[in-house]
Design goal:
The protein is of the alpha/beta class. The chain is built from seven helices and nine strands; from the N terminus they run βββαβαβαββββαααα. The strands form two sheets. The protein has a five-stranded mixed beta sheet with strand order 3-2-1-4-5, with helices on both faces. Strands 8-7-6-9 form a four-stranded mixed beta sheet.
């Protein structure tokens, strides 16, 4: 079994996890605005608990996005720096897939709709189906909540459901049960081990975040136009 260190900072919860000898341990901190100050101490704590060094890890997985612009850059940058230092590859993983995996662990669902709050009246979402391995049904997408249309009956999860409950409440797939789930390094470590076994690794020099939105902020005019479209 491979040893995978995982980092996730795409949302308001920062987490780090270590999968070593079939044992999964993790650390997490909620509500921290500067994830870069919390991740490295968590990583050091995990390595100390497992009595290993960074060079004993086979690869470093990270939540590549989508998510907070600062958050996904932080995860990518830290993973890249650690991987360079230890001469190890990285494994970029989609945060929505980690969210779907968390939902499956909690609910046992095979068809999962993962929905994350993208702010500015939009959500990041994707649909996955689990059949021995995860399959992409609808790839990661940025849209208004009203444009979230799953292909089949699904179990929906993620904080996007809570952020835009008024938009989702009448949808046949809506349920508040799993609306507080967020991407977590624990799921990234498990998914990272599978990716490593399948040779899905990347040289640290090529580590990149996954962005679905090109601009961080809307102009005043764009905000006004979006508000007018919403009110229409």
């Amino acid at each position: 079994m491979s040893t995978i260190l995982a980092i996730e900072t795409s949302a308001e919860r920062a987490s780090a996890a270590l999968l070593h000898r079939d044992t999964l341990i993790f650390r997490e901190v909620d509500g921290v605005t500067t994830h870069s100050q919390t991740i490295l101490p968590m990583v050091q704590s995990l390595l100390q608990e497992a009595h290993i060094t960074l060079k004993d890890c086979d690869a470093i997985a990270y939540g590549a996005g989508p998510g907070s612009f600062t958050g996904v850059r932080t995860a990518c940058g830290i993973a890249q720096g650690l991987a360079f230092g230890a001469q190890r590859p990285v494994i970029p993983l989609v945060t929505l897939l980690a969210l779907a995996h968390a939902c499956r662990e909690k609910s046992g669902a095979s068809d999962v709709l993962a929905v994350m709050d993208a702010r500015m009246g939009e959500v990041y979402w994707a649909q996955y189906r689990y059949e021995q391995e995860w399959q992409i049904v609808v790839p990661p997408t940025l849209s208004a909540p009203s444009d979230v249309i799953p292909v089949r009956e699904v179990t929906a999860c993620g904080n996007g459901l809570r952020a835009y409950a008024a938009d989702f409440k009448d949808k046949p797939y809506y349920s508040p049960v799993w609306q507080d789930l967020m991407p977590h390094a624990a799921q990234l470590a498990v998914l990272g081990a599978r990716a490593f076994a399948n040779g899905q690794i990347v040289d640290a020099a090529h580590a990149e975040p996954l962005y679905l939105r090109n601009k961080v902020a809307l102009t005043t005019r764009e905000r006004q136009e979006k508000a007018e479209r919403t009110a229409a």
